[in-house]
Write a structure and sequence with these properties.
It contains 4 helices and 9 strands, in the order H-E-E-H-E-E-E-H-E-E-E-H-E. The protein has helices at residues 3-19, 59-67, 109-118, 156-164; strands at residues 40-47, 52-56, 71-79, 89-97, 102-106, 122-131, 138-146, 149-153, 169-178. The protein starts with a helix and ends with a strand. Mean pLDDT is 87; it is low at 1-24. The chain binds 2-acetamido-2-deoxy-beta-D-glucopyranose (2 copies). One 2-acetamido-2-deoxy-beta-D-glucopyranose (NAG) binds at residues 108, 110-111, 114. Residues 1-19 form the signal peptide. Residues 41-177 form the DUF5648 domain. It comes from Ganoderma sinense ZZ0214-1. This is DUF5648 domain-containing protein.
Length: 180
């Protein structure tokens, strides 16, 4: 490389560097404080034969589902345990349909009551506690429905894949949860 070419390259590098936005110019993400309440893993599993995604914070219960043929799919999110001290947390209700073999989770008490009222699902307790609004370092837990399978994920790529490739219908945000 000729010296003059090198000089031009260096000047151009310098100009690129000085044109780059500084940290204070760049748009800042909304800061959501992590409120520090202890969370537990919300474990996820899938049964091909039941066409069902199942979630629980209870490892013993998960082991029983794995023994029935569900396949472990890691940790969907971190949620608050039942003895949560978080004042703004709400229950994540769990419902079950033996007709379709589907586990359904909702943080919306009205939706829970309406779903029970329709008669296909029975109450299956409380899965844990979540937030109705985005606070305490939480991210959206999205809900999708494919045929009879209610599916929940925080992963937007997975949302796209399930919607675009597997034909699931997107139902928006079910709750806000911690991603770790
Ligand atoms: C966890 O699940 C097991 C098996 O279903 C159950 O016996 C136990 O009571 C559960 N533990 C809690 C803390 O809910
Ligand atoms: C809760 O569920 C009811 C019944 O499905 C619905 O009308 C309402 O908009 C829901 N509320 C929220 C906050 O999503």
């Amino acid at each position: 490389m000729k010296l003059s070419t090198l000089a031009v390259a260096l000047v151009s590098l310098y100009m690129q560097a000085s044109a780059a936005p500084t940290a204070s110019d760049a748009p800042q993400p909304a800061t959501v404080p992590n409120c520090g309440y202890p969370t537990v893993p919300f474990l996820r599993a899938w049964s091909n034969s039941m066409t069902d995604h199942f979630y629980t914070t209870n490892q013993t219960e998960m082991d029983a589902f794995l023994a029935k043929g569900y396949v472990a799919q890691g940790i969907a999110a971190y949620i608050l345990p039942s003895d949560t001290p978080a004042p703004t947390a709400v229950p994540l209700f769990r419902l079950y349909s033996s007709i379709s073999g589907d586990h359904y989770y909702t943080a919306n008490a009205t939706d829970r009551a309406a779903t029970l009222n329709r008669g296909n699902y029975v109450s299956d307790g409380i899965a844990g506690y979540v937030y109705a609004d985005q606070e305490c370092g939480t991210v959206p837990l999205y809900r999708l429905l494919g045929d009879t399978d209610n599916f929940y994920t925080t992963d937007e790529e997975e949302v796209d894949d399930f919607r675009d490739q597997l034909g699931y219908e997107f139902f928006g945000v079910a709750a806000y949860v911690n991603s770790q």
